Amino acid sequence: MSERNRSASWGQVALLAGLLAAFVYTGHNALIGAHGLLALVDNSQEIAALEIERDRLGAEHARMARDVQLLSPPMVDRDLLDERARTELGFVRDNEQVIFRGRE
User: Fold this and answer.
1) Which one, of 85, 87, 89, lies nearest residue 104 by Cα?
2) Looking at residue 74, what DSSP letter applies?
3) pLDDT of 22-67, one tens digit each?
4) CB count, 10 Å around CB of 67?
5) What is the mean pLDDT of the chain?
6) Residues with Cβ < 8 Å from 71, sequence gap 6 or more?
7) Cβ contact 32:40 at 8 Å
8) Whole-angstrom Cα distance, residue 77 to residue 83?
9) What is the C-alpha separation between 56 and 4, in angstroms, rounded?
10) Of 34, 55, 37, whose CA–CA distance to 47 is shortest?
11) What is the pLDDT of residue 100?
């Protein structure tokens, strides 16, 4: 083989090796990289968990907004006011029994 054919062969090998390395690098990033397939699955699971938390907090916010509205003038719900005062201040009437339990 002549010197010219040998150098052309090494050039082709180097080109193929470079292309293979680029393909492996791109494939690795597409699967495992920060924006790859595995990150997409993790992000989807995190999004689902955060949506559940958002819905729970939304329901809690709606309940609190309703309680604030019921405790605001001009129409104060006396039953709710009584319940909140007893819960927060610990007031008990003489004819009542109180059962203490841990806060949830």
Assistant:
1) 87
2) T
3) 999 988 888 888 888 888 888 899 999 999 999 999 999 999 998 8
4) 15
5) 83
6) 77, 80, 81, 84
7) no
8) 10
9) 73
10) 55
11) 66
pTM exceeding 0.70: no
Measure the N-to-C terminal CA separation of the chain; round to a whole number of Å.
Answer: 85
- How many CA atoms within 13 Å lie on the side-chain side of 66? 7
CB atoms within 10 A of CB 93: 7
Q: Nearest CA to 98 among 84, 87, 80, 85?
A: 87
Domains of the chain: which residue ranges? 1-32, 39-104
C-alpha 102, offset from chain centre = 29
CB distance 31 to 38 below 8 Å: yes
Supply 102's token pair.
Answer: 């841990």
